[in-house]
Amino acid sequence: MLTVRAPATSANLGSGFDVFGVALDRPADVVSVERADETTIEVSGAGAQYIPEDPRKNTAGVVARELDAPAHIRIDKGVRPSSGLGSSAASAAATAVALDALYERNLTGDELVRVAAEGEAAVSGEAHADNVAPSILGGFTVVRDDGVFSVDADVPLVACLPDIAVSTRDARGVVPESAAMDDVVHTVGSAATLTAGMQRDDPALVGRGMDERVVTPARAKLIDGYDDVCAAATDAGATGVTVSGAGPAIIAACYPARQRAVAAAMVEAFEDAGVDARAYRSTVGSGAEILGE
């Protein structure tokens, strides 16, 4: 048996739709694999009752198929499904790293990302890599058709997860099919600012770079209390706030001294809107790691 931990992630970060992603310290999925004649899956943990164990419909099962590496796969979910924190990606990432080691495939990081992205297609319908890339590689990642780029960064983050669900398919369905040129230019500027902020470990630049006017407003309508939570986070010292991935989680950047206050303010704002929530105080984390054999 071989066991791998893969972290939760936040994709898009406002200005980097389907391109940017960042690994979080927590929560995380833990996946154990054993060689088998055919792939079987067991799921436990957060939201396990909502996750299919049919290998054809589970991200981990699709990864096993892509690698031609049948296994008995046990998934302990730490990342709740439909959270906006890369739940399906964490399972896919952990499985890809585990089966690569178990079967001695010796794939590169980019190759593992592409395999894990095929697992994501089982959930979202498309093979997006913006969550699996940071879950495997760690750090802040930029996904392009011609490769994945990873930057180590040290920026305090707060991910606040309300007790509501937003499916990836629904969140993609509200994304506008076109955008005004002014909004495109604004998004490019924000994306460049956020990237510079990650390279400089600068929470102010990262926060400014989260501002985006096309995808975020459309998805924010799916999250009860979104505007009030963002306002509360900003008042508490957040340098930027936006939807995490497809939502409903909300991600904020801040300085270290304000992290606790930002987390408390976001939870309180959700509670004022009648929604239970919990906050994860994090920084930019490392990627998937093998825990043992």
From TrEMBL:
Signal peptide: none
Domain GHMP kinase N-terminal: 60-139
Gene Ontology CC, one term: cytoplasm
Stored Pfam families: GHMP_kinases_C, GHMP_kinases_N
UniProt keyword annotations, A-Z: Amino-acid biosynthesis, ATP-binding, Cytoplasm, Kinase, Nucleotide-binding, Threonine biosynthesis, Transferase
Record family assignment: Belongs to the GHMP kinase family. Homoserine kinase subfamily.
Record-given protein name: Homoserine kinase
